[in-house]
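Summary for the steering committee. The consortium agreed at its last meeting that each partner would contribute one worked example illustrating the joint modelling workflow. Our contribution is presented below. We chose a case with several input lines so that the handling of multiple components could be demonstrated. No manual editing was applied between input and output; the record is shown as generated.
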Amino acid sequence: MALKEQIEEKAKRASLAAKKLANLSVNSKNYALLVMADALEEHIEKILLANDQDLANGVVKNLGKPLLDRLMLDETRIKAMAEGLRKTASLPDPIGEGIGTICRPNGLEIQKVRVPLGVIGIIYEARPNVTVDAIGLCLKSGNAVLLRGGTEAIKSNMAIVDILTAAAYDAGIPIGSIDFIDHTEREAVNVMLKLNQYIDVIIPRGGAGLIKTVVENSTVPVIETGTGVCHTYIDESADLKMACEIALNAKISRPAVCNTMETLLVHEKIADSFLPNMIAVLNAESVEIRGCEKTRVYNAAIIQATEEDWSTEYGDLILSVKVVATIDEAIEHINKYNTKHSEAIITKDYDNARKFQKEVDAAAVYVNASTRFTDGFEFGFGAEIGISTQKLHARGPMGLEALTSTKYLICGNGQIR
Amino acid sequence: MALKEQIEEKAKRASLAAKKLANLSVNSKNYALLVMADALEEHIEKILLANDQDLANGVVKNLGKPLLDRLMLDETRIKAMAEGLRKTASLPDPIGEGIGTICRPNGLEIQKVRVPLGVIGIIYEARPNVTVDAIGLCLKSGNAVLLRGGTEAIKSNMAIVDILTAAAYDAGIPIGSIDFIDHTEREAVNVMLKLNQYIDVIIPRGGAGLIKTVVENSTVPVIETGTGVCHTYIDESADLKMACEIALNAKISRPAVCNTMETLLVHEKIADSFLPNMIAVLNAESVEIRGCEKTRVYNAAIIQATEEDWSTEYGDLILSVKVVATIDEAIEHINKYNTKHSEAIITKDYDNARKFQKEVDAAAVYVNASTRFTDGFEFGFGAEIGISTQKLHARGPMGLEALTSTKYLICGNGQIR
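What follows is the complete predicted structure of the assembly.
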């Protein structure tokens, strides 16, 4: 069979399975998740063997060290994946949850309930743990899932999917509910993006290039995730010790992730008292600073920030710094250059805190806390399928609820119009 | 300026206006809506003059009578539009509404609030009342709106938009919040569909062709609306008098709209007692019936339904009828041919009612009521921008809430991770 027909066949099967999955009891889903977790741990050797092949191919292809590290699995990481599945089993089931009943004057009772989306297509890069997370969360929310992972992790992903599907189907999950597209050609992605008949939503997870390709080419609805150009603004009334601690945390605790600060904005009235120490602290942590003219006054070694810097997600120990004259200038800068992900103000001023939260356009707007908290687990969702940076359907960290749609159930006794 | 630049310019202006609109008080928005309603009534003559031109052009272009009727405005219809704006002013403001606060163990307070989507693009056909409705609902929900109406109503739409924008801007609404694209070329639609930088969502309203074009070509997120192949299934345990009344209402009360029944499914055990009378009643109302083999037994004049009939939205006094052996066959038929809009079962059986509501995949699933109730006003939303037939973001009738997104406001006191 040609590539297109093969993918269509899998998607069609997933769409048939989704109809059965939608009405599976929460007990059946949880039982399967626990069986799948056990299966992962029973087959650690098999997964490691496959992972070795990916790593060897990665070395041949000259993948960088960070990428190889993300690709690498060991016993601890596989056990953590299994724990993730058990954690997902313990979460409340969103399906069937009533979210309001309207009783109309004519006697109609209109109940709104959560239902699965149907078939979720996930297109992702590198990390094999995404495979396990996505399968677990889609199953728990009653959705069939069609995965398409990157070339780098293909052997690991296929081993994981083999183990998980065998365990799931043994445990009574409808066949076709979980599938993996093992074609590494780009064409495979393009085929998925046009399967509106079978796929209800596509979630891309990966770099800006992948997300752009998906958004531009998909006719299936997309939930855009991920890229984060996040700011921290130090207001003139900020507690400077707190400001320094939060800014440092937002930059260095995990520089590669999307909720990391990329630009620090500082009110000019406190620049003298704040920036010299902040710069010293950042320098001590090997953070490269690219600053505006006013920032460079404090340290001649600071490189001049270019227009491009203001909109760059470094994903690294690099930070752009700008001194602003007013909170309005800070808000304007943020709304111009941000990716609508996470933004923070450090302030003691009540009006400024409210103004910043109201006027900054982002999924998460913080007062006196690090942007690093934008995360499904930190928000208490118990899970995360990604962080939506679009405004439709879901915004910010997406837990199980983001993988659901709704349906109106209307009970009448003969009403006509 | 070339067409592309002109449309981009309007979209950019709308996106700037949206930032101001988002924080406008509900009093300011309501005041503007009332002023706009008065302005419509003050300029009835101007609107009618423009409408006369559209009607004259329609006659030249040989538009059919139903289309000309939908295009036609008179004093009553214009006053109804003005009343619509006043009604919108009286609805609760969805913006700023809190929908849950999470208090985390580390002291972070995470509040989820409703915010506007930003800029909404509406691409629609024929009826000029959509222009007024869309402007009113977008303004009330704090969104800027960019309209692109059909060629047939271009003069009427432009007159209405001129009157409403003048009134709105006089009343303090940010300039650029409401705009109309007066290019009637198809190219104008294609330009809009790619303006991700400025437009947050596109809502197409119109025939299947328009909706298909938008879904297939838009890189901006789309909310799919409208097409309805709706079914009514008469279960073996149905109250046959109620079944006949509901089926008749679902077919004839307004055959051109999307929540009208297109296919009637009848359990074979009650076909003998139900169908002869039902067919007679439908015939009396001039409904053309296209039936399966078993249906045609009851009336030799009934045409044989083809495979195509089962998936056709007639939008007219035509009905396909099929006799089924079981409720499962009915559900399977529906899930195969429906557009996931509205479906009904007529039954006295508790288990069958529940089974149907669980297993049928549609935005609205009725027991013992007419599918004609799928409507924002009938659901008590006080407004309707369209009926979503997709699963993402909004499903079923969309009121003001469907025109909002959310934002997390997080208050801390120095939390780092």
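The mean pLDDT of chain B is 95. Chain B touches chain A through 66 residues (CB under 8 Å).
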